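Hey,

Quick one before I head out. I ran the complex with F7E overnight. Inputs first:
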Amino acid sequence: MAQRALITGITGQDGAYLAALLLDKGYDVHGLVRWDAVDGAVRLRALGVEDKVTLHWGDLADPLALAQLITRIQPNEIYNLAALTDVAVSFATPAAAVGACALGALHVLEAARLHAPSARVYQASSSEMFGTAPPPQDEDTPMHPASPYGAAKLAAYWLARTYRDAYGMHASNGILFNHESPLRGEGFVTKKIARGAAAIAVGAQTCLTLGNLDAQRDWGHARDYAAGMWAMVQQDAPGDYVLATGKAHTVREAAERALARVGIDLIWEGRGVEEVGRCRASGAVRVRVDPALFRPKEVPALLGNAAKARRALCWAPQVTFAALIDEMVDAERACFT
Ligand code: NAP
Ligand code: F7E
């Protein structure tokens, strides 16, 4: 009989890539959709899998509905991807962030423990848990989260470990560094940059307005990271694994690459909030800084060491930073044609 998987957050970026991957492997894929989702299937549709998954109404804030669902479908594997994922928003709505990321994870773990105790659970942990810890970061790096999101994810990480140790559950944490794709949510910087570059190319926008250009992130492709999630769950023993490319780039470099993809070679002038990126050929300002986009506290540099995943899961990211940005810009340009 086919393996059955339940994905919370199936309507998000990672949920869509993971659903596609599990379907390819012959899984019976189920997913949770919130009652107020405007078009919950848009990303699943983009990958051509909308009609191949079974969607159920649900919310991480509703433990009874989760318990009912898990009791009824008896999944072999549960991937808890649902969360409030925007770090900047988590400063504005901290209780919602803690509710979705921490309490939500507890609801999933508890429903699994009580109603499907042999199900394997994947908890979507995050490099944001490292916060201000200096790079490179790996599974043994002390965690110093710097946002309500990071702190809530750290609570969920420890809940998964606690359920594993206390109840013998097969619960694993994927400590994933930033991963992007054309399906990335609109609030995230790579998507904003890719869309802005595409809009500038057709004259629909003149300039890209960004926050901290110096922030460094280890950006990979979401499809590669979905493969790593699945590999963790297949291990005989549960565990915690960093997934990362091992290469960091600044936000400035992401803007440079995206604009280069549409034929704009940038030169940088000025410092701090006065810094601008100008088109070398025309002199037009194409990137500027708005301090309103700075966060109350920044995570300055994330750079992951995924040696454990490479060794134990035979996992290796396939898509480079340049190829990722190019793919995202090309996808946004296609929206303008
Ligand atoms: P995403 O695109 O923002 O998707 C988040 C998903 O969670 C959406 O399907 C959303 O549903 C759902 N959700 C939010 N609150 C919910 C609730 N209360 N009940 C049920 N569903 C809820 O995020 P992603 O990039 O795919 O990330 C997936 C997971 O990996 C998240 O847990 C994230 O924190 C974690 N993570 C992501 C990254 C990354 O770089 N992408 C890195 C590390 C960890 P709606 O569509 O209804 O909003
Ligand atoms: O910001 C800087 C910003 O919002 C990246 C989530 O998936 O990855 C993601 O969190 C950096 C930050 O992602 C803008 O200050 C500059 O330093 O794309 P982001 P994030 O905060 O790293 C982690 C691993 C997760 O787990 C999260 O769920 O870019 N930045 N200017 C900007 N960021 C945004 N959003 N918008 C700007 O205009």
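Residues 94-115 form the longest helix (22 residues).

Talk tomorrow,
K.
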